[in-house]
Design a protein that fits this description.
This protein is mostly helical. It has helices at 3-13, 18-26, 37-49, 73-84, 95-101, 108-135, 141-173; strands spanning 53-58, 66-71. Helix 2 crosses helix 3 and helix 6 (108-135) packs antiparallel against helix 7.
């Protein structure tokens, strides 16, 4: 999976601007795939050169023109190739897990601060995903599965962080 595959999937559903794609990512898949505008726009330019998408310029009064990208037949074929390719193993990259793994080189207090930060981030993710679930109660089954996965993952992280903070607090009392 690369950014082109993800973009093709979004514009397969409907034509979108680079801004629309970024917004859709933030509101749907950002907990397992995220990309900046700095990655989206170069990918769109490359995909246009490769004939995977076509750009439609929409004239707007009082605003800059809007560029909508539409998937081509070649883009649809490439996206289908992606869907039919072998699934790559899921790799979790986590800065906090690496830091905690090497926690013996720092203080317990610093680890507690990291865990508190992680708890805040995970709580925000959990709250955001639940808001999305409430906003779209009729979401199609496939999208609902990925949303539920994110909610459960955030719950798991919150639980593990709470357990570790409790252990660290108990150790301080000793």
């Amino acid at each position: 999976m690369n950014i082109q595959d993800v973009i093709l999937g979004f514009i397969y559903e409907e034509p979108m601007s680079g801004y629309d794609i970024k917004q859709m990512m933030e509101n749907s898949v950002s907990y397992f795939f995220d990309a900046s505008f700095g990655a989206i726009y170069p990918a769109l330019r490359k995909m246009e050169k490769e004939g995977l998408v076509e750009k439609q310029v929409i004239q707007q009064d009082g605003k800059p023109n809007k560029n909508l990208f539409v998937i081509t037949e070649s883009g649809k074929e490439q996206f289908q190739q992606y869907l039919n390719s072998p699934i790559n193993p899921t790799i979790t990259r986590s800065d906090i897990l690496i830091r905690i793994f090497f926690g013996r080189f720092t203080t317990k207090e610093k680890i507690q601060r990291w865990l508190e930060e992680e708890r805040k981030k995970s709580q925000a993710m959990f709250d955001n995903l639940n808001r999305i679930a409430e906003m779209y109660p009729e979401m199609e089954q496939h999208k609902r599965f990925t949303l539920e996965f994110g909610i459960r993952q955030a719950e798991m992280i919150l639980g593990m962080v709470a357990e570790e903070l409790k252990k660290l607090n108990e150790q301080q009392g000793e």
